[in-house]
Fold this sequence. Notes:
The complex is a heterodimer. By secondary structure, chain A is α+β, with helices and mostly antiparallel strands.
Amino acid sequence: MTAIPQPGAKKLGLVIDLDTCVGCHACAVNCKEWNTSGQSGPLTDFHPYEAKQDGVWLNRIHTYEAGTGTESRTVHFPRSCLHCEEPACVTVCPTGASYKRAEDGIVLVNAEICIGCKLCSWACPYGAREFDEDQGVMRKCTLCVDRIYNENIVEAERVPACVRACPAQARHFGDLGDPDSAVSQLVAERGGIDLMPEMGYKPVNKYLPPRRRPVPAAPARPLEPVPTGGANALLRWIDRALSR
Amino acid sequence: MRGAASGRTTGYANPVERIDPSPPVGDAVKYTTCYMCACRCGIRVHLKDGRIRYIEGNPDHPVNHGVLCAKGSAGIMQQYSPARLTKPLLRAGPRGSGDFKEIEWEEALGIAAGWLGHIRATDPKRLALFTGRDQSQSFTGWWAKQFGTPNFAAHGGFCSVNMAAAGLYSIGGSFWEFGEPDWDRTKYFLMFGVAEDHDSNPIKIGLAKLKGRGAKFVSVNPVQTGYSAIADEFVGIRPGTDGLFVLALVHELLRADRIDLDFLVRYTNAAWLVIDAPGTAEHGLFARDAEGRPLAWDRTQGAAIDAATAEMAPQVVGEQRLADGRSVRPVFHLLAERYLDGSYAPDAVAERCGITADTIRRIARELADVAFDQAIEIDQPWTDTFGRRHATMCGRPVAMHAMRGISAHSNGFHTCRAIHLLQMLLGAIDTPGSWRYKSPFPRPIPPGAAPVGKGAKPETMLPGMALGFPRGPEDLLLEDDGSAVRIDKAFTWDAPLGLHGMMHTVIANAHAGDPYKIDTLFMYMANMAWNSAMNPADASRMLTAKDPATGAYVIPHVIYADAFASEMVSHADLVFPDTTYLERWDCVSLLDRPIGSPEGPADSIRQPIIPLDRDVRPFQSVMIDLGARLKLPGFVNEDGSPTYRDYADYMVNHQRSPGVGPLAGFRGVDGTQSGIGAPNPDQLARYVANGAFWSHHHPPEALYYKHANAAYLAEAKALGLIGSTAQIVLQLYSEPLQKFRLAAEGHGPVQPPETHRARIQHAFDPLPIWYPPLEQTLDSSGAAYPLFALTQRPMAMYHSWHSQNAWLRQIYGSNRLYVHRATAAALGISDDDWIWVISRHGRVKGQVRLMEGVNRDTVWTWNAIGKRSGAWALSADAPESTKGFLLNHVITEFLPEQGGARHANADPVTGQAAWYDLKVRIEKADAPAATLPHPATLPRPSGQRPVPRILRYGAPATPSPAAE
């Protein structure tokens, strides 16, 4: 098994807003195109133009429904590595390939020493790891470790590709170990939640629940018709003083 | 398993992986414009070793502000798709067989020039040039004009002409992508029939802003997916009844007098006087003065005066008598009288809409409360067209947007007009917080010249553009014998306001020789043999039909241009292989389909990002070459030499009118002029240096009330966006519609045939009406086909013709028929069952997915995921052809003959294809678990690259993804 470092102060991660995610897959595909040529690439595609087309993705969007009748909602749920503080995927790794960085908390796989035993993907309850049968190694979200510190990229764009692409402002990146960071503030304001906290893995990534739907500003009573006293309703406007 | 905290003390030491935190992204970066859908976002393309490393959004771009959708990010897979054509193709086997031989460009262009030259010398209208999701229509339309054929259009006729026509004839702008909510100020947003479409990234960006500010977002839609999934309120309406719902809102607002009469009398034709003389040729027209100016009744003078008079007290109700004795009533009188009627009350419409009357009443109240009690005021002085200075800008913060779900019904024109009526009554057009025009709109109503095409002669160009804006029956394109000028019968009594043409009728009409036979069908980027055809099996049959007497093809020649091996390729005689969008010069022009924002005009270019690796040419450059070979006016100099080297040369040097060219930015010899200016030889370099786009920001005083804002109109005119600085008076009541109606009632020299009188008389109501979608009236009891059937495109494939994309097809590789749980249960249908979808026309087999968030009377599926086997370089076992299905198979382009006329399955006003009128029933299907119909597998066109079984894009050791 592989050790996890003493928790550091810095906990980089994502905050995903289920209130504005429209399920467009922009984040997933931009992730794929960045990372297939990046630190963790290639992200192999099998049978790309045949039946059983499937490939390695570090981020996938699941769409499902919750509730019935008028309470029914369609939920778009982006799923990727949560960079847990207590990652079982790391501790089960027999070679040290799966590891958590002390300096920023990112969980990575060292492809050089990954033996492809898949113990980590069995250990991850979030289904966040994908095995590349072709390359024989495990792949997972790197939080775009080759973008976020990249001095060849302008500072404002040093964020994971998924955050960079998202058209609906549903993805935010930052230091969740710093209570004053924008992402921590957002989590506090919006009541961000952990996925399956009962498992005890302490995910760093947070999900923002859908905002409470605004209660209609007015009580549910209709507009009051202007009394006509039985006369032609148009008469109300006959003497209306209007100017251009 | 519990989190293994013990690992911290007992595990291996953490090995160190060497990670380069700052790898170079690539070795070059270029800016261009995306073309993975119609959105036209700005992109940065990073290159490494001559290949695409990464595509990302351009943060400075006015359309997408740096974000990028799934399609845009999948552009890499488009560029390296094995479905790319590689060489001009000449048909070798029977048409439709897909048997081609590769030929050289010189031969291909020579063949085309031979066919087209003969047509031009004999009868130019025998060329039908129809382009699909072409973004160069101002060029292709001009080419058709110079050739001399009226038979030109693009795909708007089967997409959204209802939205364009209703908007342009009502408010001088339209929803589509030519207007948007004031995302930063709107407090209440009502969206109709927008699943995941126009325009994609801007709407997503805007919805996030709305939700962040706590504005209310109400989605009126039968299906709760896409944007509807994040709406604060989902109104699951029955398809085709939105107009009823909207007019009930109008009823409520009028009844309570919660309308903006000040806005109406200043900015609309509410006070204009309408002649009341039933049975006469002037009934329902505006009363005008000797100079033709509409009149309004001034209370102060007690007389009818020029309605454009600044200082007057307009009367909005009450019958008056003009000095000449004619009886007149104001527009507002007519509309109030109509919509106050009890037949528009919520209780009267709720059942048909499938929503409760209380919901309608509550939404009416919410709209009124926000518009009037939460009005906003911007501290921004401005001057109106009367020359009056206003200290502030008042805003009604309710916004609306509508698109395909309204458009694709045969009552879509009037439904869209009804929404514009609602906006106008609330004073919510181009005010702070309401819906706003995007540049170059607003434009005069209607915005342009009449369509042209009568009297086409050999070797002669047309005097104007084929597509235009009829103002009345005299502008229809009818021959003297009443027959259609155009092959698609747009601008006839079938579709008088067929502004975008009717591409969906072209193949059937050409096959029938009705109104005449054509010689060459020339199409570009329009998959008319498959997912763009209503009734693809018949489209395929008609494209391949032979005259039994002669053995010759009924449509003698078919030329098709496309970058990929689509289904349509196999139905052509001659194929021009196009480049991808990353391999060519291109322009997104203000003359065509602009990308302006409410802040000002913008346009953009595409530039070659990577060099060509196949023998293909950009379609537009091919047309320039053909134009020169045919010696078309405008394409050759006096000495006969070509005027333009290629499309890039045309983009810089073509002038549509003096100083106005395809690109508005960096004009003038020194590149300092905007809008109007001499061609600038360095213009493209300037665009490249500016991130491949140009934009101009209007000053703050010009940003709202553009239809009556003196500063805006003056600047718009100076930029060449409009021809006049006169106020654009919004048209609640449409006089052009009334003119068509009068013709139907027996007035004027151009009248509809008897078969069309009643239909025109009904459909050309000058005020918005609602009627059931036409196809639905065929089964009035609803017994045979009880379910409404709709399609939509998923966001990751919306408006994209690239469904073979290696990454996107992993997200959507086949489609299901979505059915409400309760509806399915009543039919004994379970999740995953295979079923037949049966319409009056035919049946198609697909697999069911149950869902909750859909109107119970509605079934739907993702469109255009189903492919014909063998097309698009997909294997014969690909789920796109074994499981994916098209609802198109159960839709027809024509309604059954009624009263001696066979009408298109289309809106009677605009000819808009009525895709969403479809009604079906579903029945359990027997094995096998595979879709039907399943046309024969197409062979891959010759010259195509090998198809990889495994793709390791980006792996250093793999030289080419297609070479495996």
